[in-house]
């Protein structure tokens, strides 16, 4: 069933239609948030995204554009979380490592870090500036078109293209510095 039909059914009050939307889009939203903020904060922020979806679904003007609308909401939730964190006083690195515990960044139980190549890639990706990381995640990992990425980021398509180019170059340089070889 298409997202457009599911959105229309949701507007008519069908709970099963909303459950299907969540089943379809939960993992892509969670993965986007995880790649932008890290695994320790992904669950809370993804939950905030779905609350915003429930509230905003009746106002969605074009049901066929559900995916870019959803990622726009996710982007705002990520930006809000980053703003909150930047407003807090900085914690010294020693205290942060001591309080990380299981489930934090670098947790050996995280399946995303199981392979060395994947860990290098994730480390390189997480070290990129937010704008460049965001377009890489949306374009390559969420398979959004350039136009949809532009809509989510609220920038022209040309800006998305330049950010993608810069992000690929920066990621390649970071991985090369870390000794990663193809």
Structural class: mainly alpha
Mean pLDDT level: 82
> Helicity, in percent?
over 70%
Number of helical segments? Answer: 9
Q: What is the number of E strands?
A: 0
Order of helices and strands: HHHHHHHHH
How many angstroms separate the termini? Answer: 40 Å
Gyration radius over CA: 18 Å
Describe the structure.
- It is built from 9 helices and no strands.
- With 182 residues, it is an all-alpha fold.
- Helix 2 packs across helix 7, helix 3 packs across helix 4 (66-87) and helix 7 packs across helix 9.
- The longest helix has 23 residues, at 15-37.
What are the main properties of this structure?
mainly alpha; 182 residues
Question: What topology emerges from the helices and strands here?
Answer:
Layout: H1 3-11, H2 15-37, H3 39-56, H4 66-87, H5 93-100, H6 116-126, H7 130-141, H8 146-153, H9 157-177
Compact description:
The chain has helices at residues 3-11, 15-37, 39-56, 66-87, 93-100, 116-126, 130-141, 146-153, 157-177. The chain is an all-alpha fold.
């Amino acid at each position: 069933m298409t997202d457009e039909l599911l959105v229309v059914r949701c507007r008519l009050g069908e709970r099963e239609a909303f459950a299907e939307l969540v089943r379809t889009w939960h993992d892509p939203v969670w993965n986007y948030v995880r790649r932008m903020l890290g695994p320790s904060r992904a669950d809370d922020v993804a939950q905030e995204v779905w609350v915003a979806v429930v509230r905003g679904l009746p106002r969605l003007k074009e049901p066929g554009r559900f995916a870019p609308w959803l990622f726009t909401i996710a982007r705002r939730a990520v930006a809000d979380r980053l703003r909150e964190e930047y407003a807090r006083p900085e914690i010294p690195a020693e205290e942060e490592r001591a309080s990380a515990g299981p489930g934090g960044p670098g947790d050996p139980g995280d399946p995303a870090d199981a392979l060395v190549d994947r860990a290098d890639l994730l480390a390189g990706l997480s070290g990129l500036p937010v704008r460049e990381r965001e377009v890489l995640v949306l374009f390559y990992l969420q398979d959004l078109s350039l136009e949809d990425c532009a809509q989510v980021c609220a920038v022209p398509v040309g800006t998305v293209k330049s950010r993608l180019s810069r992000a690929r170059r920066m990621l390649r340089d970071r991985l090369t510095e870390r000794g990663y070889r193809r």
